[in-house]
Amino acid sequence: MNPVKAYTIYAGILTGAMLCLPGTACYSKDNVKTTFQSSQEWRPTIDNRADAVMVYGIGGNPSDRTSAKSFESRVRSWKDRGYIIHYMTGIAWGEYQDYFTGKWDGKWHLDEGQVTQKGDTIWHGHMVPYIVPSMNFLNYMKERHVKRAIDAGAEAIFMEEPEFWARSGYSDAFKREWKEYYGTDWRPQHESPEATYMSNKLKYHLYYRALNEVFTYAKEYGKSLGRDIKCYVPTHSLVNYSQWQIVSPEASLASLPCVDGYIAQVWTGTSREPNFFNGIRKERVFENAFLEYGSMESMTAPTGRKMFFLTDPIEDWPRDWADYKRNYQATFTAQLLYPGVSDYEVMPWPERIYEGLYRTSADSQEKTRIPRFYSAQMQVMINALNKMPQSDNRLNGSHGIGVLMANSLMFQRFPQHKGYDDPQLANFYGMALPLVKRGVPVKTVHIENLAFPATLRDIKVLVMTYSNMKPLDPEAHKHLADWVRKGGVLLFCGSDKDPFQGVREWWSTNGNSYTAPSQHLFKTLGIDMNAADGEYKVGKGTVMVMRHDPKDFIINKGGDADYVRNLTALYSDRAKAGKLDFKNDFQLQRGAYKLAAVVDESVSDKPLVLNGRYIDLFDPELPVMQSVTVNPGTQSLLIDLDKVKDRKRAQVLAASFRESDEARSGNSYAFTAKSPVETDGVSRVLLPSMPKSVTVDGKQVFNPQDWDKASRTYLLKFENSPEGRKVRFNW
Q: What pLDDT score was predicted for residue 18?
């Protein structure tokens, strides 16, 4: 591809030229609220009762050490149990040995792996390299995998993790793609910032092309069969990929008509990546997860695409059960603080969650299966996701501050040039963490979505830098300038001294001679293109320039003082948005669900005390409480009994199983309870009055001590079964 053609494509991508208009139906909705992925056949130990299952891989999952049964038999085993069938596999890696060893087309293709400067292939597993997705490989994926999955009955295709490692880009396959894309000979990315930038831009394009090719085929093939095949991209957040030095198409995929939505792959493993704040580098799982989910939500909200949020009760790395539980609660709460998203992947790999062996404590090598109390709590939380409503409610606190981000965050991470370092993505966190740590519900804003009016509709103050990213299209500056002139407030933080400012891009080519993209932005705003520290009036709005890279705000102890002071003044005095409220908690009401999180390292170390009538969903005993204390560094998920709708109606409020086949009469309530074997069934059931009889599979289990008169709830316990327990209450 020649550079002009490449630029044209990216211009279309980044201006949103192909995106669905807000409020339009660019794709039909599916009937799935909850899902999970598994490479195994149905078993009673892993029957978690989500709406759908993503049966993984025609050949299974390369990370599994057990051999999977045939794909078709796995599909049948789940379908026979009432699950909607979807298909998931990796687009950058997978059980594709028949392609690499020549069984598909008679040619070896191991040269299509991603290769580092040292000549090493980056492997995901045995004979499973990370792939440079050639057109030949994409044809293989269509014929051998996608077609077979659709023929087997899959209603949706999930192509996960389009990942190109930043440290790769040295294989012959990549060099061929460079020649095709740029029309010039390959340049080693370590030789210059420009070569790095060009290399990563190509990596970005290759997986954009890959998903476009595969998903377009899936939809066309499905249509030929009279079926509407959905296509989704499970992907890590832009925050995480930038941290982990991976390049992926991210937000641009929403420009493809063949993409119906995403799974936000956020979990303990991504969110525990350390970052800096107040001069200290450490894990900040809740805060990180909050920003990760936020970046995924803001990526799709203006486009109308569907978004599933993922959490994982464990993670990829072996830890102890207490560690898993603590961080699961943190990430789980963070996802629920985005009330506009109400679809979830409830877990990956139930086989490893329910059947895997992990340490009993941090200082012990003894391993055991998931403790009964944790599996019960986890299933209570999962069942809450099955019922979690979408909500127009907002987090408590001062709204309207956004942090601008772009896909090009991934382009500058590796290798370093001219000694400029952005440790742990500090230039991004330097803008966001000082706000999150003060209880401000900051939003992330994707530069790729600025063409949508909804993107900046609720933003009062927008913070940005070009120290860690670059605009791939000049149109973004027109949108920013229009917004400021109409009354928006823009805070630009940056020294413009990183070595990527001078790469040959649109701001320095084709008649432009700007030495930094900020110069074009400032000129478009009508201020001095080398604007110094200070405040500038632009139309009805304001621009403030701070000639400091945001990383300085968090790498240094107390380094955010000026930044926070300026933001406070801009918010109240220029944006007229009121006093910027600093606190240490986040709270949200979603229907009857009450969410709360208290951060440490904040303006206060006081716990949050909630008074009322609550059921604690983080406690497998489901206690009814009149007061709940949330300490700094912890979270809470509650049912607010005073917010339950139709309190005269018998209903399951919380349970470690999924109820179905509900039947109500004037004096009875019955349902079927299903959940994995070898787990505890526990529930709080709201009843009109104290029951006279409670039976499970016809056996009387009524105990007056399990009745809570004040809340009119009955605590029911039994041994779970995937076959279903028949429960009946009479009063």
A: 34
Report the alpha-carbon distance of residue 71 to residue 559 in Å, rounded.
55
Domains (range + CATH), the chain: 32-387 (3.20.20.80), 401-574 (3.40.50.880), 585-643 (no CATH), 651-730 (2.60.40.1180)
46: nearest Cα among 54, 38, 35: 38
Q: Provide the 3-class DSSP secondary structure of residue 198.
A: helix
Considering Cα of 516, then 521, then 526, then 532, what sign does the dihedral take? negative
- According to DSSP, residue 168 is labeled B
Query: CA 385 to CA 224: how far, in whole Å?
Result: 35
**Rounded CA separation 555/184 (Å):** 40
Nearest-angstrom CA–CA distance, 691 and 481: 65
Among 90, 432, 519, 401, residue whose Cα is nearest residue 238: 432
Q: Residue 192, exposed/middle/buried by CB under 10 A (0-12, 13-18, 19+)? A: middle
Q: Which of 370, 282, 274 is nearest to 322 (CA)?
A: 370
**Which tokens sit at 217?**
């085929």
**DSSP classification of residue 121:** B
The DSSP annotation for 378-425 comes to HHHHHHHHHHPPP-----SS---EEEEE-GGGGGGSSS--TT---GGG
State pTM to two decimals: 0.95
Q: Mean pLDDT over residues 293-315, rounded?
A: 94
- Tell me how crowded residue 643 is: count the other CB atoms within 10 A of its CB: 17
The backbone region for 74, taken as left when phi is positive above 0, alpha when psi lies in -120 to 50, beta otherwise, is alpha
CB contact at 8 A, 209 and 249:
no
Identity at 692, one-letter amino acid code: K
CA 485 to chain CA centroid, nearest Å: 33
Per-residue CA distances from 636 to 46, 373, 700 (Å) = 26, 17, 34
Burial status of residue 326 (CB atoms within 10 A of its CB: 0-12, 13-18, 19 or more): middle
Cα–Cα distance measured from residue 452 to residue 468, given in angstroms and rounded to the nearest whole number: 23
Strand order, beta sheet including 585-590 = 585-590, 593-598, 634-640, 608-616, 624-630
Q: State the DSSP code for 206.
A: H
* Chain segment 666-713, per-residue pLDDT in tens: 999 999 999 999 999 999 999 999 999 999 999 999 999 999 999 999
Residue range 532-550: mean pLDDT, rounded: 98
| CA within 13 Å, CB half, 537 | 2
